[in-house]
């Protein structure tokens, strides 16, 4: 069993839940979770869609109710992830026994944890003692940043947990300023999400949305222990760097032949139905959307629906097609048309049941172009760091996928500068016709590519497929500075050095600092100053994934 924090959207109830009856009423749990969050971890096990809850169904339901109440995303839920051979009932009983030792009040929890830290206990020791995650321990210890007057307000229930969590991001001076406003009857001090925005200068911009190199930003970063994000403390500096990066990407698009690039006003929402896919030759443009939270999206190869209709009308007139009079009355009423549509639909569905080959191609068209009932997207493969993005883009695997995409685009007769996935609102009929003209082998090749593109990052299914397909990471990956720079913990680096350099080398350097260990690992991996270890793959990247320690935090395994 390993403790992790898991997004609420990735948790689903299991038919094997240890509670068989009486789990419908969660009115007793909702106020506790609203105030304190989830204390006792849910017992879960991975499946192909995320995780199923074996024990903790009532806590899951209460979390879903609290999440539906707020306008903020619900924080990741502490979970005990079962391993093969684990006894669900025994683990749940053990967790319940440990959690019973935990004080119910957040401040009492902080004081209990802080006392143990003073005694020299590690965060891991404290988490094990109380059956909680290290992250919850860190969250409670963050309360140390609060001034006594704020703690008093929390004790008296005059402020909620969301306000308390926001104030842990504030400096002492900011807390005093906020407290003065809170106590002023003529003022309305911001609370909850509004307080977080007030502390961050009105804009809550996560570092993960930046498209510029992180070292370019020299201002302060605010870290939120209650979420999984860090935020830019200087939104003005962020936007200056972000817009400069947008300008660079726009210039790159122009170099690729996209002459018309439209940057929409900040905060404008992208309604896909208002646009139609178009190639460069058809006058397609690149539209750029920017959210107030800093996210930038480039929508490549579109024209507005209005422009598309206008061009179609011009083309029809040039072909001698008579344009319908808008004022003319339709031949069928809405109800009559609905009757006809339903019967035609039913007949086609029945006929399609006997045509597996056509159905397969139709599925392909729906997957690529999308429809009212189909929405399949390529995983964005968003990297937390620019170094990771650069490493991924230069990898053998990414190169192989890019080459295959060009081949698939050619088979579908689509723009070579476009993308196979993400063609929502494209002409599904044209894609279907292209698929009808292909042999089964080519259709299967296209669908295989689509499936590969839409495979979700970081799921247990990746581990399952890696093992099933006997993926050789040694042929696809080589250790680089981007990876080694992310491994900073000595307890991890020492066994990693033994793994690549051998026991004798690790023994010599067992007292060396992390920087030295990382340098030797780099030398072994690259052959710079030492004999190169060919084909070395750390267990994190292997299939199935493993760790060097028992602390968890490794890729999900099947």
UniProtKB/TrEMBL annotation:
Superkingdom of this protein's organism: Bacteria
**What is any Pfam family matched here?**
ParB_N
Q: Which SUPFAM superfamilies match?
A: KorB DNA-binding domain-like, ParB/Sulfiredoxin
Q: Which Gene3D superfamilies match?
A: 1.10.10.2830, 3.90.1530.30
Q: Which GO terms describe its biological process?
A: chromosome segregation
Question: Which GO molecular function annotations are given, in alphabetical order?
Answer: DNA binding
Task: Name all ParB-like N-terminal domain ranges.
Answer: 4-99
GO cellular component, alphabetical, reads: chromosome
Q: Which family does it belong to?
A: Belongs to the ParB family.
Please give the NCBIfam families that the UniProt record associates with this protein.
parB_part
For this entry, the protein name equals: ParB/RepB/Spo0J family partition protein
Organism per entry? Bosea caraganae
